[in-house]
Amino acid sequence: MPTQGINQLTSPITEVVGAKTADLFEKELGISSVGDLLRHYPRRYEQRGALTDLSSLEIGDHVTVQAQVRSFKNLRNKSKPGTRQEIVISDGTGQLTLMFFNQHWREKDLVVGRQGLFSGQISVFNNKRQLTHPDYELLDENSALNNSPIKTEDYVEALLPIYPATSKVQTWTIERAISAALAKLADVPDPIEPEFKQAHQLIDLDQALRLIHHPANQVELDRAIERLKWDEALVLQILLAKEKHELEMWPAIPRLTKAGGLLESFDAALPFKLTAGQAEVAKMIETEWQLAIQCIDYSKVKWVQVKQLSLCEPCSL
Which of 51, 47, 75 minimizes the C-alpha distance to 155? Predict the structure, then answer.
């Protein structure tokens, strides 16, 4: 692990990228610190060599697809001076056209047989789906993507992270910034005790943050996701405990229950019998009403419990 460089997740992102890129990251993605960057998890992963199903793309979507170049044509425009370049990419069954204008030099890059990630907005011209002037990152045996620490022998199995991106900040730009941050980052302090991690077979936070962005295989990805779920649950519990503490500091007028009072009349008028769970929550609220403190919002407590039981993968949080 690196021992010099970035020591804190709170360090500004300018320690990783230039000022211009940092400004773009903040405006487009709300990323201003190294921690923000590393918590910008992939939304999905592409298996190297497993091409994207092009038939599933919708008109108007901004997409990033993995596909192979099938043909390249330099064509002269009929109605105006200049040329256009039509490149057909394919997933093996469907096709998508890449369109450029007056950029014949791209023939050196987009060689038939090359695979890459292609990003742009899906449109239609002459009943054919296309990406006009798309951004792209070509893949070869020397990049995974480019700065990833994945070993050569794991290259074919390696998963390519696809990040939530915008038209101005592409997924590979995000990936390079994250790779640069991880290369400089010292070991990340872990808020979870070693005994707890051992009991639940959890990896360190530092390892999880590295594997979520550069998993060599599905097993590593699953271990990273499992650990990061616990971290989100911990944050939710801390926030709830903080709010509870703040509420307890506010004075309130005790509301004592009495026999034959409004609460009993309300329950008796209900057209159904309270379930055990409803009765339990009602008793909790009733108890707190009798204290000289603010009541806790138990709907929020229940939301936190449900959230912990149904945490999704970090790339979809």
Answer: 47
- Cβ burial of 284 (10 Å; 0-12, 13-18, 19+) is middle
User: Please, are residues 48 and 155 in contact by the beta-carbon 8 Å criterion?
Assistant: yes
The predicted pLDDT at position 214 comes to 92
CATH assignment, 49-138 = 2.40.50.140
Rounded Cα–Cα distance for residues 172 and 231 (Å): 26
pLDDT in tens, 198-229: 999 999 999 999 999 999 889 999 999 999 98
Q: How many Å separate Cα 133 from the centre of its chain?
A: 26
Q: Give CA angle at 158 (156, 163), nearest 5°.
A: 135
Task: Report pTM.
Answer: 0.62
Instruction: Give the C-alpha distances (Å, rounded to integers) separating 241 from 125, 166, 305.
Output: 56, 36, 13
Confidence of residue 13 (pLDDT cuts 50, 70, 90): very high
Q: What angle do CA 168, 114, 156 make, to 5 degrees?
A: 90
C-alpha 311/C-alpha 227 separation (Å) is 11
CB-CB neighbours of 180 under 10 Å: 18
Q: Where in the chain is the domain with CATH 2.40.50.140?
A: 49-138
